Amino acid sequence: MEFTFTQDQMAFRDSVSRFLMTEAPPELLREIWETDAGRSPELREKIAAQGLTGLSVPEAEGGLGLGDVDWALMTQELGYYAIPDSLVDVAYIAAGMLAALPEGHAARGEWLPRIVDGSARIAVGHPINPWVADAHLADLLLLPHATAQGLELHAVPASAAQVSTQRSIDASRRLSSVQWQPGDATRIADGAAGQVLWDEALERGALCVAGQLVGLAQHMLDMTVDYAGQRKQFGKPIGAFQAVKHHLADVFTAIEFAKPVLYRAAAALATKDASTSARIAHAKLVCGEAALLAARKGIQVHGAMGYTWEVDLQMFMKRAWALN
Fold it and tell me: Per the count of CB atoms within 10 A, which of 29, 190, 318, 319 is most buried?
């Protein structure tokens, strides 16, 4: 199978990287972490102004109509900069579920344009995980309800849900348990149709996590390489020692082997290949292993100081632990 990204895809990825490099440096992330909400309205507005919230929304609703393969590049950048925002949940997973509803459906018509302009935050739950990310700020929650026919899809307004916060090892993840009552007023897809939507949402979510893990691994490797070039022992940078070089080479190799697995999974999802579930599971596994390896080797090279709050490595390491 011949698989290469187009020039437009690569140019878009590079523009997103430059934007996040400027607007979301580590010092800003620390400030956001320490707020009660854990999110920055200003950063969210800038993200929406760049058109990033509307990436997966169909063009008919004002979006760009990009697909799964584009997100395989996008999520790496979000992971590389450890963006503390529910952009993926809203712009990819929630948008995909709403866009799969029939044309003319009230929920589709109401919420997709709001996703595009950035005026709506949507939290997505799933029965596999009892915690819902960013539910504390959501205007709408997409939640499952199990029936004999399958998982129904319910669109629950924030006013109809009781949200209780839960702590995470990663301070940038804001998790909550949600209490709500399913009913005809909130149901937007029955069990048969909803099950398909939830299955696709799980696959998209796993693919997004895999992409973010690759980005996290790359950032941890870059930070460790920089540190190894600056830290000196016996009058020379520690990066000159063969043992350290081997650590860094192992991480580089793991990342490079993980990327094609991620891209193949994205292509399978985009074409609805029969092997999609297996390929996404494979991608999640190898990308997670690459991120954990990058975290472990990064700590070995940095020494005990790598765990401390003052060193940026711990921010990305905790995110990698949480996503695995």
Answer: 319
